[in-house]
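User: Here's a protein and a ligand (protoporphyrin IX containing FE). What would the complex look like?
Assistant: Let me lay out the input and then the predicted complex.
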Amino acid sequence: MNLFLKIWRQRNAKAPGKFVTYEVKDVTGDMSFLEMLDALNEELLRNGEDPVAFEHDCREGICGSCGFLINGVAHGGRKATTVCQLAMRFFEDGDVLTLEPWRARAFPLIRDLIVDRSAFDRIIQAGGYISVPTGSAPEANAILVPKDISDLAFDAAACIGCGACVAACPNAAAMLFTSAKVTQLNSLPQGQPQRDHRTVSMVVAMETEKFGSCTNHGECEAVCPKEIPMEFIGQMNKDLAQAILHGEREAAHTVPFDEFPEGE
Amino acid sequence: MLDPLIPSGPIEQKWDKARFEMKLVNPANRRKHSVIIVGAGLAGAAAAASLGQQGYQVHCFSLHDSPRRAHSIAAQGGINAAKNYRNDGDSIFRLFYDTVKGGDFRSREANVFRLAQLSVNIIDQCVAQGVPFAREYGGLLDTRSFGGVQVQRTFYARGQTGQQLLLGAYQALEEQVAAGTVTMHTRREMLDLVVVDGKARGIITRNMVTGAIAAQAADVVVLATGGYSNVFFLSTNAMASNTTAIWRAHRRGALFANPCFTQIHPTCIPVSSEHQSKLTLMSESLRNDGRVWVPVKPADTRPPHEIPENERDYYLERRYPSFGNLVPRDVASRAAKEVCDQGRGVGPSGQGVYLDFADAISRLGRDVVAEKYGNLFDIYERITGEDAYTVPMRIYPAPHYTMGGLWVDYHLMTTIPGLFAAGEANFSDHGANRLGASALMQGLADGYFVLPATVPNYIASTTFERVTESDPAFTAAKKEVAASIQAMLSIKGKRTPDSIHKKLGRLMWDYCGMSRSAEGLEKALAGIPEFREEFTTDLLLVGTGEELNQSLEKAARVYDFLELAELMCIDALDRNESCGGHFREESQTPDGEALRNDEQYSYVAAWEWRGAGEAPVLHKEPLTFEHVHLTQRSYK
Amino acid sequence: MSSTKPLDRATKVRSRKITRGKIPTNPALALWHTTIGKKIVMAVTGAVLVLFVIAHMLGNLKIFLGPEQINAYSRFLRDVGQPELERGQLLWIVRIVLLICAILHIVAAYQLTRISHAARPASYAHRKNVETTLAARLMRWGGVLLAIFIVFHILHFTLGAVGFNPGQFQDLAVYQNVVAGFRVWPISLFYIVAMGALCLHLDHGVWSMTQTLGWATTENTKSLRTISRVLAIVVFLGFIAVPISVMAGWVR
Ligand SMILES: Cc1cc2nc3c(=O)[nH]c(=O)nc-3n(C[C@H](O)[C@H](O)[C@H](O)COP(=O)(O)OP(=O)(O)OC[C@H]3O[C@@H](n4cnc5c(N)ncnc54)[C@H](O)[C@@H]3O)c2cc1C
Ligand code: HEM
Ligand code: HEM
Ligand code: SF4
Ligand code: F3S
Ligand code: FES
């Protein structure tokens, strides 16, 4: 089949960007979406043009590297699927597909379809951990975790940090991502001692990183490739209120440094 | 002869003894010492976090945009530990024994024993970090059996164990970043190692966004940059997995051990088109219930359900009646290749065998099968469009793991003082074949426990001259790196990096893959220099080095693969025996099984770089086995 | 290559941990300090407003019981609380609470909206909604319309300052005022449109409130959304029944 791709091209954060349309010929159903882009890039390279920059690594839906909007939907709109897991079988001859990068102030564009998601790392830095200096852990089975709690923690821990939730949210909020980590750690017995500090810090970090504020649109949940439920957002809100009632007032947040100054 | 510096004494006490003999660094002085860690996968992140906690000034580099993307994230099956929670006869000694034997007697006993000892602490550490391992209803940790061993010692977190372990290490690392002990340098690719006065003192990196070439000096450099299966172009590894960091260290003097020891995993989804960019692993656990078969007749194109029972060849069950479909990875892979070479392979390419669940479904019912393997069947369907409940799966072996890597001593130090290697990047613990669920264990043992003891020991026992990034060695190395990038950009030929990589991969797969012969290896050794020539004269790149340029990044990695490939073939040719993942056609029993040659090859082959175009020099580290008796493996 | 710098930027600039010491000690202020806290304030004040609106709607329906009933009800609202409180005092307390809620609700809405707008400076050329509803997307504009409505409505029925001929508006004669007020069809129309906005606001708002406060779960979300919708529709119908009946001449 032949497809038309309308792809956002932008050399760097400062350069102006625009959509450029490419035709990709002889796409077969067993190719993956990213293999189709590989084919386009080989073609572009042979014609002396800049290949389309897009992020990817594992190509099996677990590393969270890939992601852009296909026809307006983050990761392309198939349930529980990342861009790299899309097969071309799902598309039809003559389809016109628009490929647009995640857009959020907290995710500055780097090139074409690649954005900088390091804000997520800084949210984790603010409190997305349980402090266990290496060697100080108790015997593993000394900590009993009821199976349902353990399963809940796993559901939350499944987040791959792809950023689709932010991209799809009309408010560019990072609530789903943050709530997933908060829920994982706050539900486990190991996470209790730092519970309040974690919650307040991570919530404040979202704000300092310039993410938006949630109005419960639910777009995030709909596009999340790991099906993280919105329920966790409510859970995090509750945890925040509790933390504040408990008197937690400290928010540690690492100042983002300007990683990609222009002109370098 | 290489000295691995194994402590004397009984094997159970070696690690304790070594730790006691290690020199310590006063807490107040730690801040004055800097450690570079390249790689933030399981091994790198664990080491960076742990050394940061101790108070060293750590600089951690990753070519990814976040440590959480490292390839360790993709590991599915689980992680071994000798906890013996099941009371089923497991012990540190048994894990040690299984690993040495599984590695076909080509690993170092002392290292493996330490690994088995530390496995226990790893689980404690990870649980405390909040890693959501599978649990029983009573709240205790669950385990399962994995990779053909008789005990249930594999801890797992659904099918995403690597992800959960990596996130644990990543979070510990980010905590240290916030605490200011670790500086995280993401999207920086290490392109050279800087050696000053014989000691590793820093690295040269390229900022993958701006192209800036920068130097970083330190007292110690640790490489934890993962494996090099991507030399085959198609593998189960992530796209960015590469050999660049360890290869360039090798060029600077670090010996490369057992480069030809690669593991080909038997259960991957077969290649479906020439556009294929990577292969997807289907968990090994599928072989517990699936039956492997091919048609008896070659070139039988009938759909599977039309092939009657008596025209099917359940070749693993036939050849290995006692282990059947559960033979180890290397045996299963080779057997699949044989039947496909006989023209009996299935699927459009003829490179595939059936993994059939029909019996399991009729025996256990569809629901039970779905509960056990549902997510794998889903992955399979997503990729192939086929429903494995009704049509047998098609699988084929694929490159998966590299046991070879930089040679390291008991302290994980390479032959360059101050340069350490950890995780899949070193050659250490798996011998000629890695058992399932052991790589995660090794990466974390190295990162959480070994390096945090041995790196300080090195620091405490070394006097460091002041070295800064403006030293001539750094300036020169930076110039070299910049020049090599410029050189690639100015070739302006017609071959894209991918097209050369694909050709190399094909060649390596054919001649240095699942089965190797002197003749084939000679062919490969003749072919590789031609590809290199093609690369240096006809490479096609566009854009500049001063921007994000993914084909430029790719090209540099491909060139290193082109050099590494040659060493792999040289090593494979040199080792005229079959062991583990390395099968030499010349060395087999009359009925086609691998035949080890302990008399001549019971050593680690560590190769020294002698310059481009020069033959590498072989150094041997003899292997002795005091606790595990050398036996030929048999799965009949 | 020219751009070899002595040191990478990031190697020089250490990440620094800052403590935002600004978080106020007072729990309410601390809550207000965070975005999620503001959102919780919106939910709580929203809930108060919802309760008021329901009560108000029920009160309005007394109009169908005739002038005496509703006018008596209006007087009752002022008398209630006696003898412990002066006449009208309780009403004022309620009025003040409502006013504070409305102000907090609006200020929070405004501030959070600003934050969200700033969070996506470059908008998508093409983005498709998958899950969100029209009601959810109209919360902000609908809210603005409601604010305008409330101001107008107080000037209208409470103060008689707009929409009446001079001398037409009589204090405490709710029945007569309403009938006279809704005879002016553009005003009735405006009321109906505003009630439409209220309906949409509640359709998303009531469910949203449960989600914000962490009561919604994956399992109960469907039911909560239904409850929210039913409530919104009941409130809508309950309110518009009055202007429609007046215009149709059923209530005169
Ligand atoms: C599909 C799959 C499934 C697996 N399942 C299992 C399993 O169930 N159990 C098990 O035990 N093992 C499993 N393995 C093996 C195991 O996952 C790996 O061996 C292990 O994770 C390697 O960890 P690592 O830390 O050494 O390297 P990696 O995780 O590969 O990390 C490498 C790091 O180095 C960085 N890096 C690389 N090169 C450079 C450079 N030049 N400059 C800067 N940074 C660089 C990368 O950014 C990354 O951070 C599996 C492997 C695969 C492919
Ligand atoms: C007066 C002007 C008003 C404005 C500007 C306004 C604006 C908003 C906005 C922007 C939201 C956020 C949307 C969301 O979170 O989903 C909201 C939520 C809400 N509003 Fe209003 N609103 C107004 C009046 C009202 C009134 C009169 C009521 C009650 C009848 C009300 C009840 C609610 C409720 C219950 C919520 C949900 C809160 C939450 O999700 O946590 N609002 N409002
Ligand atoms: C068709 C619908 C409505 C009718 C007929 C109506 C009618 C009235 C009347 C007659 C009064 C004066 C009561 C008195 O002075 O005793 C009043 C007051 C008021 N109404 Fe409404 N109303 C309607 C809708 C609404 C809505 C939707 C809101 C809020 C969102 C609202 C908020 C108020 C307020 C705040 C007052 C002032 C109460 C006071 O302080 O005395 N009304 N309404
Ligand atoms: S919550 Fe879902 S969409 Fe958001 S980052 Fe995690 S996996 Fe991606
Ligand atoms: S889409 Fe956005 S508004 Fe909230 S529920 Fe999800 S973060
Ligand atoms: S490339 Fe890893 S999730 Fe898509």
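Summary: Confidence is low (pLDDT under 50) at residues 1-20 of chain C.
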